[in-house]
């Protein structure tokens, strides 16, 4: 591999070549110090803009020693449009969470960095993916930033996925890792002006199920609900409401960077 650092071209994932990932390797990376670097996964939203997700963390990567992994979960990998299904981790025979775990292992092996203590960030659809992934695989994570999720998955064991977690074992073959949630640093972040009613789902929508609107009428309200859910679960969860910001990832990026920067400085 002639290129040593910087942005790498998107590469098909070995586990399933329908999916790919881009990588940013900071200029400070050295093979002899690879163990001191960490992976930060930046998950795109429903618009599928993984380059933008990667670019958003490039400065933080240079400052804090992160390799930024940006997965691409494209639409229409089956015989329908499936615009939102990655955010729920599973669709038909596709396990998006396992695809991502394999990508992480692939990057860790190629670059010699730890495959655990991974940081995870996502905004909007990416935020939905991030908090659901955290429920199942929190033991692999060092920190999580959940940005402006449109639909909140609570930890209610009386309600099915993707509003609650009652059927997680039958759906995924594992339980919510509640032990891993305890003490896990989590940021729930949302713009103060992110108050559109487009998050309200009506019967007949593919995103509708009983209880889907119970977490709030706007992304701000839903973010507050998720914050409470995670505090109740024992996570070390903070809530950041960014003044003047709407539903745009770049408008909350400074708050997200500050969250990961503080944790990285404490870990060193």
Key features?
268 residues; two-stranded antiparallel ribbon; globular; 10 strands; eight-stranded mixed sheet; alpha/beta
- Total strands: the figure is 10
In percent, how helical is the residue content?
25-40%
Radius of gyration: 17 Å
Principal-axis shape: globular
Q: Give a short account of the largest sheet.
A: 8 strands, mixed
How far apart are the first and last residues' alpha carbons, in Å? Answer: 29 Å
- The ordered string of helix (H) and strand (E) elements is EEEHHEEEHEHEHHEHEH
- Give the number of helices: 8
Strand order of the largest sheet: 1-2-4-3-7-8-9-10
Note poorly predicted spans: none
Fold and architecture overview:
By secondary structure, the protein is of the alpha/beta class. It is built from 8 helices and 10 strands. It has helices at 50-56, 58-64, 96-111, 125-137, 168-172, 178-181, 219-232, 249-267; strands at 6-12, 20-25, 38-43, 66-72, 90-91, 94-95, 118-123, 141-147, 185-191, 236-242. The chain has an 8-stranded mixed β-sheet with strand order 1-2-4-3-7-8-9-10, with helices on both faces. A two-stranded antiparallel ribbon has the order 5-6. A hairpin with a 7-residue loop joins strand 1 (6-12) and strand 2. The longest helix is centred in the C-terminal third of the chain and has 19 residues, at 249-267. The model has no long low-confidence stretch (mean pLDDT 96).
């Amino acid at each position: 591999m002639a290129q040593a650092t910087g942005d790498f071209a998107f590469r098909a994932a070995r586990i399933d070549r329908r999916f790919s990932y881009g990588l940013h390797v900071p200029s400070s990376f050295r093979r002899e110090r690879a163990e001191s670097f960490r992976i930060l996964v930046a998950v795109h939203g429903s618009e599928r803009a993984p380059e933008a997700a990667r670019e958003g963390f490039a400065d933080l990567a240079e400052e804090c020693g992160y390799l930024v992994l940006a997965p691409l979960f494209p639409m229409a990998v089956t015989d329908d449009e499936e615009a939102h299904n990655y955010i729920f981790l599973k669709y038909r025979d596709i396990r998006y969470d396992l695809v991502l775990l394999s990508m992480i292992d692939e990057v860790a092996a190629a670059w010699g960095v730890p495959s655990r203590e991974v940081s995870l960030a996502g905004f909007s659809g990416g935020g939905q993916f991030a908090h659901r992934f955290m429920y199942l695989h929190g033991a692999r994570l060092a920190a999580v930033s959940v940005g402006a999720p449109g639909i909140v998955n609570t930890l209610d064991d009386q309600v099915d996925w993707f509003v609650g977690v009652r059927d997680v074992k039958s759906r995924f073959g594992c339980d919510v890792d509640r032990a891993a949630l305890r003490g896990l640093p989590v940021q729930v972040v949302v713009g103060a002006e992110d108050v559109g009613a487009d998050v309200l789902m009506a019967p007949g929508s593919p995103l509708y199920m009983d209880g889907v609107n119970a977490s709030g009428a706007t992304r701000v309200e839903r973010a507050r609900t998720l914050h409470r859910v995670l505090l109740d679960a024992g996570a070390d969860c903070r809530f950041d409401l960014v003044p003047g910001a709407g539903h745009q990832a770049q408008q909350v990026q400074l708050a997200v960077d500050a969250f990961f920067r503080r944790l990285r400085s404490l870990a060193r």
